[in-house]
Amino acid sequence: MSPARTAPPHGTAERAADEAQGSGAVVLTDVVKRYGRGPGAVTALDGVSLSVRPGSFVCLLGASGCGKSTLLSLVAGLDDLTAGSITNVDRPVAMMFQESALFPWLTVTGNIEIALRVRGVGRAERRRKAAELLETVRLTGFAHKRPHELSGGMRQRVALARALAQDASVLLMDEPFGALDAMTRDLLHDELERIWRERELTVLFVTHNVREAVRLGDQVVLLSSRPGRVLNTYDVGLERPRRIDSAPVAELAAEITDALREEVARHAG
Amino acid sequence: MPAEVLGAKEKDDSRQTVSGLDELERVPVSDTRWGRFGSRLWAGTWPKVLALVLVIGAWQALFVSGWKDPWVLPSPLTVWEDLSSYMATPDYWQAIGITLQRAVTGFALSVAVGSALGIAVARFKPLRAAIGSLITGLQTMPSIIWFPLAILLFQISESTIMFVVVLGAVPSIANGIISGIDYVPPAWKRVGAVLGMRGLTLYRHVILPATLPSFVSGLKQGWAFAWRSLMAGELLVIVAGQGSIGALMQGAREFSDSARVLTWIITVLVIGILVDALFRAADNRIRESWGLNQDR
Fold it and tell me: Where is this region: Disordered (chain A) (predicted)?
């Protein structure tokens, strides 16, 4: 399964497919997304091209209205492109959202097992895998709790385990730590980094938090707002493990923040 | 691969911090479940006892005032004596059995029809446009209005009663499902889509479980309608040889036996309260396990 989803008018898919080599690569070519028709149409994304290397961690950064969540929905196949193409060698991709969206009628294990069940994994194997994933996100003792008995950070880790249960090499994350306090977020950055390396995932991580982007990303892609275009791509050459409060992180974050502010100011009045 | 970059000590540190934070962030649950249960039971009981005492007191006062003759309006004590001696006879329990059997059959039928109808209406837009508002309209119809038609269709028979009971309960049950499906949080559906669920799989694993609270409240309302329709039906449609509650009550009225009529009224009230408690317990269980009761 290596589909290239192409919107009718463009023919750049072949080139994109050539660039996408190895599992976990995602290539976006001139992606356009428009909502509505005629004069009332809103262009969310306008010619976004992006090449994500397998095994890399790419952060998409932008102010409100840059269409970063739209971009993830398109990659996930939850929405259709208006023009351009998206090639990802591995489909389906796994995805995680700002809200954990765990199912309250299932226990923690149940929430993880459901992802396996949909994929047709047998009962015993589901048990085993779910236990393993709970160990990965360090929630082994909480298998039989209900989601509401957990804290926000723990719920996000269950959601992460559920996403990992999809066993996809590409993980899309839509502001997954946006609603958490700083302490919890720091810890989850460490955890996510560890899991990303252990499992050799390709991560596309959407955030509006510049430091978070620099803390986590191999690359930070800065998007413009209304419509969303790629403004700049920053290579984060900092050694891992990084700390969000370290000087080099702060320095690069400041540079990116300036660019982001400029972009936001452009929309004034 | 380079997971070993982190030293073993550092790794353990992070694990400890994570589980330390988990421990701190957990909602503390008090262990005095039984104590809480006891005080909750008492808190729920005494207002009921007080209300009962007040009602019986008012009834007794009305009786003493001589507003009606004692054979028309008997005293609470007379009714209590009739009730307790009647409870010792098989007739009493047989009547309750017949009536409850009708109620359960009618309700089960309504659940089947109502659920299927609800899912169909929620799923297919044209069907909703066609009969969505009709269902809500039907819900407001007094069930007794159906009896003349039902009697013409089915004569005096069990079917007549069933017909009206089902017509009374189906709209509530269908509406419960429809509004449940309408209000499934989009985030859950999105997760389902991300996990690769489509069509029936999405219904089975996400949408139907998500409608559960709304479905149960639909069931509860549906039961109330079914029970009322059934009582109306039993009073109007007396099927030969079936000594149901309604039939025996009509018999008591023909013999001007007020105490017996009141005995049945009290019985019907008690059954209603008990069934309501069942639904409430189911509702509470769901809320409890979904974490919708966290204000306590």
Answer: 1-21
Instruction: Evaluate whether B171 touches B219 at the Cβ level (below 8 Å).
Output: no
Q: Judge if A21 and A60 occupy the same domain.
A: yes
Between B14 and A178, whose confidence is greater? A178
CATH topology of domain B77-290: MetI-like fold (1.10.3720)
Q: Is B202 on the interface with A (CB under 8 A)?
A: no
Question: CB of B187 within 8 A of CB of A95?
Answer: no
Tokens read off for A140: 């082994």
Is the separation of the CB atoms in A84 and A28 below 8 Å? Answer: yes
pTM of the entire predicted model? 0.83
A62 and A118 share a domain? no
Distance between CA B135 and CA B126 in Å, rounded? 14
Which CA distances in Å does A60 have to A50, A73, A175, A178, A222? 10, 13, 10, 14, 6
Please list, in sequence order, all residues whose beta carbon lies within 8 angstroms of the beta carbon of residue B37, skipping any fewer than 6 positions away: none
Same domain, A115 and A209: no
Chain A residues in contact with B21 (beta carbon < 8 A): 151, 153, 183-184, 187
Same domain, A135 and A62: no
Point out the residue among A148, A191, A241 whose CB comes nearest to the CB of B291: A148
Query: Which of A167, A197, A217 marks a domain boundary?
Result: A167
Domain finish residue from A167, A187, A217: A167
Give the nearest chain A residue to B204 (CA atoms).
A118
B212 interaction partners in chain A (CB closer than 8 Å):
105
- B268-293 pLDDT per residue, tens: 999 998 999 999 999 999 988 898 87
Residue pLDDT, tens place only, B88-118: 999 999 999 999 999 999 999 999 999 999 9
A-chain CB neighbours of B25 within 8 Å are 151-154, 184
Q: Please report the ipTM that was assigned to this predicted complex.
A: 0.85
Same domain, A185 and A213: yes
Q: Please, are residues A210 and A261 in contact by the beta-carbon 8 Å criterion? A: no
Taking an 8 Å cut-off on Cβ atoms, the answer to whether B1 and A200 are in contact is: yes
For B195, the closest of A147, A154, A166 (CB atoms) is A166
Hey, are the CB atoms on B2 and A197 less than 8 Å from each other?
Answer: yes
Structural domain containing residue A198? 4-93+171-265
Task: Look at A149 and B26 and tell me if their CB atoms are within 8 Å.
Answer: yes
Determine the longest span between alpha carbons in chain A, in angstroms. 61
Q: Are A117 and A66 in a shared domain?
A: no
Best of B22, B26, B287, B290 to disrupt the A interface (most A CBs within 10 Å) is: B22
Read off the CATH number of the domain in which A231 is found: 3.40.50.300
A222 and A113 in one domain? no
At residue A18 the predicted structure's pLDDT band, cuts being 50, 70 and 90, is very low
Domain ranges, ordered by start, for chain B: 35-67, 77-290
DSSP designation for A151? -
Q: How many domains does chain A have?
A: 2
pLDDT digit string (tens) for A69-90?
889 999 988 888 899 888 876 6
- The answer on A258 and A226 residing in a single domain is yes
